[in-house]
Amino acid sequence: MRLAYLLSQYPTVTHTFLLREIQALRDSGLDLHVISIRGSDRPDHQLSPQEREERGRTYVVLEAGLAPLIAAHLGALLRGPLLYLGGALYALRLAGLDLGKMFRNLMYFGEAVLVGAQTERLGASHIHSHFSSTVALLAARVFPLTFSATIHGSGEFVDAKGYYLPQKVAQASFLCAISKYSCSQLMSLSEPQHWDKLEVVRLGINPDVFRPRPHRDHPDCFEILTVGSLVAPKGYPILIAAFGQLVRQGRRSIRLRIVGDGPYRSSLEREIAEQGLGEHVRLEGACGQDSVLPFYRQADVFVMSSFAEGIPVALMEAMAMEIPCIATWITGIPELIRHGVDGWLVPPSDAASLAAAIREFVDDSELRRRLGKSARARVVEEFNLGRNVACLAEVFRRRLGA
User: Fold this and answer.
1) Residue 304: CB atoms within 10 Å
2) pTM value > 0.90
């Protein structure tokens, strides 16, 4: 089976799980070709060998140049003028009377024609995208192609109409939700007649890569780790406030490491400085898989203070390494962490509850050990990359009749 895999940017440091999934799908026998709207988020010399290999075999839309773009549009117009013009009008109709959305949708349409032409050139007839792709929706209006998508949440659900989710559910061949929560949101946005298109296919990690690190009963400096982009939904000010409470209570031999980068870095730096936590909190910057592993190995607890998530891969990685985890009780996270069994769940936006949970973990070594071991077993059983990619490959074969 030959598939076009449509991504917004590839490879990226924040979505290494996509690289793992793509390679595992190829290993399962699928002939998979990646089309990315944008190229890698880093120059080639900063990529891992695997990322460089993927970069070399990926078709990048915004790097294709003007000549292929013009050729794709002329070819589509001459071959099917009604389909071409209908696709352009559909893009405008989706935008309603919003001039900004009209302009953006016409840009998507421009990309969609090039994506459709490249998909046909590859000999594929189906496009699968990760996250909610308007480009795939429009490509299927102009070309004799079908499309599907993996929906993560929760970003797509914040502005479901703006992402045209109802239209995508109606027109897609099928949609994969990474959690039951995401599946329920897609159901709420669509007619019951389309619910049989929805599949729950979880993400996963390789537990042979993320192996248990040594448990430390009484570390000289207790290491708290979080990994994720520095953006508003991650709730880092709540985590910093909770950490500040512990320091002011006399817990001085603790350190918070925040691995990731993003637009909120300067804001977090000010927050850390205002609370006098510069000695205890470190913003470590963005890290790829190879460079993030040492941070996991040093961690005594992993904390996620998010306001919105799908099911975070970073939590799976930490759990697989037997790092006890504290996370917010939101969206799909309770499908990964069972409170008191595989980790600890706290209310979002509640710095006091988060501080209390961290304090309990600092003081109770046996609790950390028990939850860490259960966490790894949970990931190995339910969020194993090999098993879940096999499920995804089976969905492709069953749904596409191959």
Assistant:
1) 26
2) yes
Residue 59, Cβ neighbours under 10 Å: how many?
Answer: 18
Whether 140 and 16 map to the same domain: the answer is: yes
Q: Which domain holds residue 118?
A: 2-204+385-400
Residues 6 or more apart in contact with residue 76 via CB below 8 angstroms = 83, 84, 113, 116, 117, 142, 143
Could you tell me if residue 38 is left (phi over 0), alpha (psi between -120 and 50 degrees) or otherwise beta? beta
pLDDT (tens digit per residue) in 293-343: 999 999 999 999 999 999 999 999 999 999 999 999 999 999 999 999 999
Q: How far apart are CA 118 and CA 103, in angstroms?
A: 23
Q: What does the pLDDT look like over 242-277, one tens digit per residue?
A: 999 999 999 989 999 999 999 999 999 999 999 999
What are the distances in angstroms from CA 254 to CA 218, 246, 335, 344, 401?
Answer: 12, 9, 30, 19, 55
CATH label of the domain that carries residue 319:
3.40.50.2000
CA distance 400 to 31: 14
DSSP annotation string for 115-174: HHHHHHHTT--EEEEES--HHHHHHHHHSS-EEEEEE--SHHHHTTTTTTHHHHHHHSSE
Does residue 163 share a domain with residue 236? no
Q: How far is CA 27 from the centre of its chain?
A: 22
Closest by alpha carbon to 372, among 324, 313, 300? 324
| Residue 35 bridge partners (DSSP) | 6, 59
